[in-house]
Amino acid sequence: MDYVTVAQKDELQPNERMVVQVGRRWVAIFNVEGTFYAIEDVCTHDDGPLAEGELTGCIIECPRHGATFDIRTGKVLSAPAMVDVKRFDVRVEGSAIQVMPR
Questions:
Q1: How many whole angstroms separate alpha carbon 97 and alpha carbon 47?
Q2: Most exposed of 57, 61, 70, 90 (fewest Cβ within 10 Å)?
Q3: Exposed / middle / buried, residue 87 (Cβ in 10 Å: 0-12, 13-18, 19+)
Q4: What secondary structure letter does DSSP report for 81?
């Protein structure tokens, strides 16, 4: 599988996020101080939209029930979620933000 271009760097400023469709998945792309991260935009607790939650550093809090995840690794950090969220590899090629679909 090859990387897929999902956005241009100038579309996602530092401390912003966007949600894009990659294949059949909704993927949240985050720009944290110039570094890009991507996770599936689905809380593993109740399928809520993670990108709508509060982002503190690299920790996203689900807006529905407060589960937290590390966007760098996808690791779940607090209940009620018990399962990690899917993380995607991200790279920047020229001005293109690209993710590796899985």
A1: 25
A2: 57
A3: buried
A4: -
Q: How is the chain split into domains, by residue range? A: 4-99
pLDDT tens profile 68-100: 999 999 999 999 999 999 999 999 999 999 999
Tokens found for residue 32: 């944290």
On whether the pTM is more than 0.70, the answer is yes
12 vs 9: CA distance, rounded Å: 6
Q: Tally Cβ neighbours within 10 Å of residue 3.
A: 16
> Class for domain 4-99, per CATH?
mainly beta
